[in-house]
Amino acid sequence: MPDKGSCTVIVGCQWGDEGKGKIVDVLAEQVDIVARYQGGANAGHTVHVGDDQFVLHQIPSGVLHAGRRCLLGNGVVLDVQQFFEEYDALLKRGIDIEGRVGVSYRAQLLMPYHRFLDKAVELAADTKIGTTGRGIGPAYEDKAGRRGVRVADLLSPNRLDKRINAAKDRVATRLEELGAGTEELNEAMERTLALSERLLAIATDVGPEISGALRSGRNVLLEGAQGTALDLDHGTYPFVTSSNTTAGSAATGSGIGPTQITDVIGIVKAYTTRVGEGPLPSSMAPQMDEHVRMLGGEFGATTGRPRRCGWFDSVLTRFASQVNGLTGIAVTKLDVLDTLDEVKIATAYKTADGRTREFFPADTWSLAEVEPVYETMPGWHSSTCDVRRIEDLPRNARAYLDRIEELTNAPVCFVSVGTKRSQIITVD
Ligand code: GDP
Ligand code: IMO
Ligand code: MG
């Protein structure tokens, strides 16, 4: 029996920070459940409601719509302390979330020692990744190494003690090797474990809950974190995060079957940004980089670091379209380009040996050396912030979107022209 409800994946198609939070918030109006399927508090999803700004790290971006159920799937690594800080801060700001948030019994717990390890490893590394310092890599390492602690382990204090004591010994040795201090670690562990009861009270079987909802005709959004170029397999390895960010993992990380997914919407910024280490082939020249960073407010929502800016890279978004099986794209932050004289799109890369490639290469190191082939298009010198219908956009802005659509191989279904909920164009 096919599901009666729709299940849409929202996936970042660049290096994260594409505006996923804004689009999820807008689409949450039409759904019943919003679920995160991977990542952890490395995500920073910004949502504006009226004059208020919310930055969500772990709780799905649908939470600002009253009554929406918000779930964290098994694919997520959950920093319990950070999670409840976010939860309580939302309550304090008048968001009624009691009873609406659920966490998978199968989700991995991100422990304070993962954060300590992340920072110590990064400090000692020759090849720095520029992580968010949220413990993501070490938590997924423990998951894959079958040493992790899951929410379900909290059901048995004895088993939990055993697993945590084993981890503590391992971590102490590793931190000592790295020359890192462990002050405050014990206290942080106690604070985390003291939240066990509270966490168990909202633990649930996320996969069956989503499947049941879809069967009975309710609509679901699966909210990705990070972006395709940060995917552990498909991104610019090793300058990636430690989870699969792409749409394939939306099923695995939420506990439903792939055939239950009805649509995959790729979020692309109208230009490109990157925070952390690793190549950005379509980097803008320093002056333009600074200019666009200021126009777009391109500073990390989790770490506050300046984001590097680049032109729209269709080599990457075409690859993202293929690897995610996109059924549509949402182009965000078009308004940021409103005042530019011209805009560029990278359509191919010229490699060191003079060849032109149209595919995103697996060899990350070669990516640092490629020269993008650009198409230059005239700017539109007109504000798009108040436009609500695609046909009312300036001609040059439409031409730019048409070219993005053509090069990305996916239809534009939304265009975002500002941070507000109302600043969205829906394309039929
Ligand atoms: P996410 O991680 O993909 O959710 O994106 P972030 O929240 O980290 O970064 C996107 C930033 O752009 C946030 O500050 C948003 O408020 C902002 N934003 C989203 N859509 C638009 C838009 O269409 N125009 C403008 N000017 N800002 C936007
Ligand atoms: P959202 O969901 C942008 C980057 C980090 C670093 C690399 C690895 O807001 O789009 P990690 O802490 O995950 O081990 O860091 O990935 N990174 C992000 N960049 N947006 C994000 O999330 C990111 N999450 C991680 O800067 O380069
Ligand atoms: Mg972000």
Classify the secondary structure makeup into a structural class.
alpha/beta
Q: Note the beta-strand portion.
A: 15-25%
Number of separate strands: 20
Oligomer: single chain
Q: Reading side by side through the largest sheet, how are the strands ordered? A: 9-7-5-2-10-1-11-15-19-20
Name the overall outline.
Answer: globular
Helix content: 25-40%
Rg is 21 Å
**Ions, cofactors and other bound molecules:** guanosine-5'-diphosphate, 6-O-phosphoryl inosine monophosphate, magnesium ion
Which residues sit in consecutive blocks of at least 5 with pLDDT less than 50?
none
Q: Please give the largest β-sheet.
A: 10 strands, mixed
Mean pLDDT: 96
In whole angstroms, the N-to-C terminal distance is 29 Å
Determine the number of helices (DSSP H or I, runs of at least 4 residues).
13
Draw up the topology in text.
Blueprint: E1 7-12, H1 20-28, E2 33-36, E3 45-49, E4 52-56, E5 69-72, E6 77-78, H2 80-92, E7 101-104, E8 108-109, H3 112-124, H4 136-144, H5 157-177, H6 185-193, H7 196-200, E9 203-204, H8 206-215, E10 220-223, H9 248-254, E11 263-269, E12 272-274, H10 286-296, E13 308-310, E14 312-313, H11 314-324, E15 328-332, E16 342-350, E17 356-357, H12 364-367, E18 371-378, H13 395-408, E19 412-416, E20 424-426
Parallel strand pairs: 1-10, 1-11, 2-5, 2-10, 5-7, 6-8, 7-9, 11-15, 14-16, 15-19
Antiparallel strand pairs: 3-4, 12-13, 16-17, 16-18, 19-20
The structure holds guanosine-5'-diphosphate, 6-O-phosphoryl inosine monophosphate and magnesium ion.
